[in-house]
TrEMBL record, chain A:
<feature type="domain" description="4Fe-4S ferredoxin-type">
    <location>
        <begin position="114"/>
        <end position="144"/>
    </location>
</feature>
<dbReference type="Pfam" id="PF12838">
    <property type="entry name" value="Fer4_7"/>
</dbReference>
<dbReference type="GO" id="GO:0016491">
    <property type="term" value="F:oxidoreductase activity"/>
</dbReference>
<dbReference type="InterPro" id="IPR050157">
    <property type="entry name" value="PSI_iron-sulfur_center"/>
</dbReference>
<keyword id="KW-0004">4Fe-4S</keyword>
<feature type="domain" description="4Fe-4S ferredoxin-type">
    <location>
        <begin position="70"/>
        <end position="99"/>
    </location>
</feature>
<dbReference type="GO" id="GO:0051539">
    <property type="term" value="F:4 iron, 4 sulfur cluster binding"/>
</dbReference>
<keyword id="KW-0411">Iron-sulfur</keyword>
<dbReference type="Pfam" id="PF00037">
    <property type="entry name" value="Fer4"/>
</dbReference>
From TrEMBL, chain B:
<feature type="domain" description="NADH-quinone oxidoreductase subunit D">
    <location>
        <begin position="124"/>
        <end position="282"/>
    </location>
</feature>
<keyword id="KW-0479">Metal-binding</keyword>
<keyword id="KW-0533">Nickel</keyword>
<keyword id="KW-0460">Magnesium</keyword>
<feature type="binding site">
    <location>
        <position position="70"/>
    </location>
    <ligand>
        <name>Fe cation</name>
    </ligand>
</feature>
<dbReference type="Pfam" id="PF00346">
    <property type="entry name" value="Complex1_49kDa"/>
</dbReference>
<feature type="binding site">
    <location>
        <position position="355"/>
    </location>
    <ligand>
        <name>Ni(2+)</name>
    </ligand>
</feature>
<feature type="binding site">
    <location>
        <position position="358"/>
    </location>
    <ligand>
        <name>Fe cation</name>
    </ligand>
</feature>
<feature type="binding site">
    <location>
        <position position="48"/>
    </location>
    <ligand>
        <name>Mg(2+)</name>
    </ligand>
</feature>
Length: 200, 361
């Protein structure tokens, strides 16, 4: 009996009756706070590769030069919409949902230091990583066409048949070397810190 | 003379009542269940293997992809375990924000579990009401974190973003709405005679059997066991947390424990919103080398992360023990035995809220 009374009370509520007679599916609208795929703002990309460094998904974001302008490009099938690239970018090039607004308002950053590890038992000294590394190519333009370098300023180079790391501190942690290595011999450890209130 | 034949009755792997694939193999005499075994292995991901050798900023996303229904707690426990290794303490505001998002996640998980149960006992009206109410909770999660399921809200030393006073007001009014609606739905559930017939006294798990078979979470708490990892968590103790316990141990008790825990979550969020003061939401800190066993309370029970990190903050070894692993075995070996009807097999199984994605990882 109590159950029947409860059902009658449920179905005699004015709200229930009005919604029953005026039932209408709400339009499908993406709310403005939804964290969607990152989009470009009008700010200029400086090719610092912080977005590639922080990205947790494989090859979801790449910084490429098109018509003499560097800009990040998202591969939508790979991107998991985590929004870390937006927080890591120091120039506010990317935006999605409310993340950029929060980041500016509260001065949120993600900063990293990097350590390159080469497994010498797997490395065959092919030099793919040294050629692929975008920082290496900026420092020594000769690396754009050949695998060998005479410069001592590069991050790493092939020396006497083995890859050697010279300047670890110049690494931006972009993982391009990891992706170009056919043996999985090179690993970049990214020690990232989530900070607030500008640089530490 | 009528011959009684023992039948091996398979339920699943594809069954309309199951959210995920698994097979229950029952030995029955007529409708009476003599023994049961749960067979898994349909959705194995091998996610712990993928996690190895990766830094926290990659593993936190893999961790929340272990399970889509309780994603926040996986992120929560993983980040707190690496924080404990490295001696990082989250800021006060971040600790409260973590509790708010975690409790919203618990609410949506419990509402989904109870939706599933009502659907299994063929009370589709109440099931759809609960699923509709869950959308309100999901909207709040989206409002705070930017995503409904894979929130990725917690980072070492703090959280991803703060909540403004507008969002806090919207959250408060949503909680009032859920409170009012759920009170009516529980009244329907408690007084429904047909619901009572399908729920009360069905699938009884006694306290001794629950202790013996290591039941966790709402399944254990419905059998009178005071076992909740939130009781020892510093932020929860500061908010005056005490676990919800019932003594009956049947389907009805398990569902009611989840309903009461939704109200408890509402109270916790309200008191966290009151207790929160302005301040930083991130304290920084890098991950150091070490190993730990760390527990947290997922919506389904105790979640354990056992992991080792190296000097560069990478995860070397990781093992995840999810609450559904013991609960599914408890269900097969203690709750399903002596079920009087084959129709009760699915309802007993669903009442223990099994999560196959968690179990197989």
């Amino acid at each position: 009996m109590l159950s029947i009374i409860n059902y009658i009370r449920e179905f005699l509520r004015p709200h229930w009756i009005t919604t029953f007679f005026t039932a209408k599916t709400a339009p499908l609208v993406t709310p403005p706070h939804f964290r969607d795929f990152p989009e470009l703002t009008d700010k200029e990309c400086t090719h610092c590769l912080a977005c590639m460094m922080i990205c947790p998904a494989p090859e979801a974001i790449t910084v490429v030069k098109r018509e003499e302008i560097w800009r990040p490009e998202i591969t939508k099938g790979h991107c998991i919409r985590c929004g870390l690239c937006i927080e890591a970018c120091p120039e506010d090039v990317l935006t999605s949902g409310r993340i950029l607004a929060y980041k500016k308002e509260e001065e949120l950053t993600l900063q990293g230091t990097f350590h390159i590890e080469i497994d010498q038992s797997k490395c065959m000294g092919c030099g793919n990583c040294t050629v692929a590394c975008p920082v290496n190519r900026e420092i020594d333009p000769a690396l754009r066409s050949s695998g060998t370098s005479t410069s001592d300023e590069v991050i790493m180079r092939v020396d006497t048949g083995q890859n050697k790391v010279l300047h670890e501190e110049k690494c931006t942690g972009c993982k391009t070397c990891e992706e170009s290595c056919s043996n999985g011999a090179i690993r970049v450890a990214r020690i990232v810190e989530a900070l607030q209130g500008g640089e530490k | 003379m009528k011959k009684t034949v023992d039948i091996s009755l398979p339920v699943g792997p594809m069954h309309p009542c199951f959210k995920e694939p698994c097979r229950i193999k029952c030995e029955t005499r007529g409708e009476y269940v003599l023994a049961a075994e749960v067979e898994l292995g349909y959705v194995k991901k091998g996610i712990e293997r993928i996690m190895r050798g990766r830094p926290w900023q990659e593993v936190m996303f893999l961790a929340e992809r272990v399970c889509g229904i309780c994603s926040v707690i996986h992120n929560f426990v993983f980040i707190e375990s690496v924080e404990h290794i490295s001696g990082i303490v989250p800021t006060e505001r971040a600790a409260y924000l973590r509790v708010i998002v975690n409790e919203l996640d618990r609410m949506q998980s419990h509402l989904l579990a109870n939706y599933s149960y009502c659907y299994t006992i063929e009370h589709e009206t109440l099931a759809m009401y609960l699923l509709n109410l869950r959308e309100t909770v999901m909207d709040q999660l989206e409002l705070i974190t930017g995503a409904r399921v894979t929130c990725a809200f917690i980072v070492p030393g703090g959280v991803r973003c703060d909540i403004s006073s507008d969002i806090a007001d919207e959250l408060r009014s949503a909680l009032d709405h859920i409170d009012a609606e759920l009170t009516r739905f529980i009244r329907i559930f408690e007084t429904g005679p047909l619901i009572g017939l399908r729920s009360k006294g069905i699938g009884i798990l006694t306290k001794d059997a629950a202790i013996e078979s290591h039941a966790v979470g709402p399944t254990a708490r419905a059998s009178g066991i005071d076992n909740d990892q939130r009781s020892t968590h510093p932020t929860y103790t500061a908010l005056g947390f005490s676990p919800v316990i019932r003594q009956e141990g049947d389907n009805f008790a398990r569902i009611m424990v989840r309903f009461e825990e939704v109200f408890q979550s509402i109270r916790l969020i309200r008191s966290a919103l009151e207790a929160m003061r302005e301040g930083p939401i991130r304290g920084g800190g890098t991950i150091k080398a070490g190993s730990i066993r760390y527990r947290g309370e997922a919506p389904r029970g105790e979640l354990l992360y056992e992991l080792t990190t190296d000097d560069y903050g990478r995860i070397l070894e990781i093992a995840i023990q999810t609450p559904s692993i013991p609960n599914i075995q408890v269900c097969a070996h203690a709750m399903l035995i002596d079920a009087q009807s084959a129709a009760d097999i699915t309802s007993i199984f669903i009442s223990s809220d099994p999560c196959i994605a968690c179990t197989e990882r």
